[in-house]
């Protein structure tokens, strides 16, 4: 397994310690988060104050700029305590990597307060018209996790000339990611879901909002405004890995809960505990092996590319594909481990107070994400076979 690069400082260890120290607080609030359909304020406040919400932001903008392996471990730790909290930490934390591409003037404006929280949606659901000094933007974006706790929200918009999109030389529409003040956005109450209910991933909309060019990221992104190894690492590979880390944390919680439950539960008709049932031993063994293998492959693939980014080596398409494959594999492996724990837990796992049912719902919400859904393996496999393929978000 690749080890964390020597480029890391004491800050990453401190951030991981901070995440671990927040576990008791996070574990107090999952049911409140599900009731309110958003991250509870005490948890959001703690994640902001700890620096976790800005862990991948450039240092020049007040961020911590931690390495990918540290970010994954922080996300995994929080997701073990509560999947929704880990998901929000992932969304807001990794958004900082995008912020490396904001023009310097806009970054200075956005982060006059260093602990400002940003998030957004990459789907191109907006429309922008270029005007003097910037763009006028309208649109509605779905699944904006943690939107209630953000100071800034971004949403990709296609640039129009009249009624038609402005086309780039490569035959694709020109697009930008304008960063809106949260006060300019209307949050629409849409997040009524089965899994990750506590993430508050509602829609948000803007109507004819002016955004200066200094607060717009141009797509496709080229050289970052703030250089550094973190921003050399393939962005969508990093995001996919971060999504997968939430699933790993959820699965760890589920397997631990099954182990605890098995020691105390006496199934109907049995004179001994659930732990003595052979099928329970088989489920625990398979879940542990599946989860451990998925996690190890992800950390190995991410670590190898991180080492290349730190050393200045080129990162091949094959290496990118391995990171993406490892992320998909981690998410699906985590879901398999949760399924095993949920099934072995029996009817007890159905009750609202059981962590197993929440892990089951949350982890299957993760596997629906476009970056780690099962179908992503087709593109990854084609790259590894050396076949021509389109590479969206690669």
UniProtKB/TrEMBL annotation:
<keyword id="KW-0560">Oxidoreductase</keyword>
<feature type="domain" description="Acyl-CoA dehydrogenase C-terminal">
    <location>
        <begin position="243"/>
        <end position="372"/>
    </location>
</feature>
<dbReference type="InterPro" id="IPR036250">
    <property type="entry name" value="AcylCo_DH-like_C"/>
</dbReference>
<dbReference type="Pfam" id="PF02771">
    <property type="entry name" value="Acyl-CoA_dh_N"/>
</dbReference>
<protein>
    <submittedName>
        <fullName>Acyl-CoA dehydrogenase family protein</fullName>
    </submittedName>
</protein>
<comment type="similarity">
    <text>Belongs to the HpaH/HsaA monooxygenase family.</text>
</comment>
<dbReference type="Pfam" id="PF08028">
    <property type="entry name" value="Acyl-CoA_dh_2"/>
</dbReference>
<dbReference type="InterPro" id="IPR009100">
    <property type="entry name" value="AcylCoA_DH/oxidase_NM_dom_sf"/>
</dbReference>
<dbReference type="InterPro" id="IPR013107">
    <property type="entry name" value="Acyl-CoA_DH_C"/>
</dbReference>
<dbReference type="InterPro" id="IPR037069">
    <property type="entry name" value="AcylCoA_DH/ox_N_sf"/>
</dbReference>
<dbReference type="InterPro" id="IPR013786">
    <property type="entry name" value="AcylCoA_DH/ox_N"/>
</dbReference>
<dbReference type="InterPro" id="IPR050741">
    <property type="entry name" value="Acyl-CoA_dehydrogenase"/>
</dbReference>
<feature type="domain" description="Acyl-CoA dehydrogenase/oxidase N-terminal">
    <location>
        <begin position="26"/>
        <end position="92"/>
    </location>
</feature>
<dbReference type="InterPro" id="IPR046373">
    <property type="entry name" value="Acyl-CoA_Oxase/DH_mid-dom_sf"/>
</dbReference>
